[in-house]
From TrEMBL:
Gene3D superfamilies listed in its UniProt record: FAD/NAD(P)-binding domain
Gene source species: Pseudosporangium ferrugineum
Protein name: Putative flavoprotein involved in K+ transport
Signal peptide feature range: none
Molecular function GO terms recorded: flavin adenine dinucleotide binding; monooxygenase activity
Amino acid sequence: MTAHHAVVVVGGGQAGLSMSWHLGALGVEHVVLERDRVGHEWRDRRWDTFCLVTPNWQVDLPGFPYAGDDPDGFMSGAEVVEHLEKYASSFAPPLREGVTVTRLRRTLDGVFALETTAGSCTADQVVIATGPYHEPAVPRLAERLPSAITQLHSSHYRRPEQLPAGDVLVVGTGQSGAQIAEDLHLAGRRVHLAVGSAPRAARRYRGRDTLAWLDAMGHYTKGVDEFGDADEVRLRANHYMTGRDGGRDIDLRAFATQGMRLHGRLRGIDDGVIAFAGDLAANLDHADAVADGIKDAIDRWIDANGLDAPHEERYVPVWRPARGETTLRTGDITAVVWATGFHRDHRWIQVPVFDGRGYPTHERGVTSCPGLYFLGLPWQWTWGSGRFAGIARDARHLAATITAARRSRVTEDVSWLAGTATETFPALDWVTGRAAA
């Protein structure tokens, strides 16, 4: 695979394909390297009943807006894969599947060197479009569970029948944890759910999908620099709701009335006892308060714009937990699903652009290293950045930055060559950039 490219895009998901579309439209030579197949993350890390939380009209990729007959519906995982495959076929990007980049470094002369499972190549500029979800994160205390208990990370959960009969503990109430708990609950399984501080949002409010209101209000285009602490914003958990069966709220309190056992945050495992913190009531109240805050903002926007929207009564909690810590014996469960997120794995990137937490430092995807960019990160620039809704905008910005950098480099080269007519320069070694002996 030894070759030189103007741009190498690492990752062939929605971010990498969007980047390729824009680069192609601008006539920039490039290659897209995908370690598996297009849509890999949607094929192999989603459960059978998975649906997007965002409505189909937000699946708006560059040059390929949603054109189906259900814009307010929610694509299943299989439909997302099919959509991405059709997108790739629509413009035939220079895509190489089954190629993993194992090392990226910058040489002394400013060129990027990439080592891959298909050989080596170099590039003037590189876009990292591998997303943020790399290695499943499972807490070390999982090692304290008896070996007889089946343990799965949420990325490996597919269906209830995958787990042995008996009670199941789900740890985490982000979007995956809440939806997997619902999946097991609807299948008739007894679920114990460790509830964290993730917020929730109503699926619909005052006659429209909540996300449609937020889009109309400009929330998806609000830059992260408009918030007081960008780092804090980027670490926030997503609001839980679901697109399943046409979309609905996920009401953990209602599940509790139906037999789901809710607990506070997982605190420890010792001597056959699983201990949960006494913060369940606070966590549920916080989630409800966030949902109400979103409704308040929608109400204000409706009033300010004089819109005619039906009135809707506010949510009233249908269940409240008892105060205090709770426990569960390990012998009372047969399986645990860890919906505890992912670790970033950028060890293969040997360029110093990361902060102390391993997060790439950047501004709108542009790092401090000239020619190195990131695309598809949550809150890269807006709330939509890590979703289908904002990929096109972010890719367009990076494509413009890349082409500007290319023009600048050409101008510098031309200026240097022009200067040789009147000035004397030492011969250069074009590999190292040093003066030749």
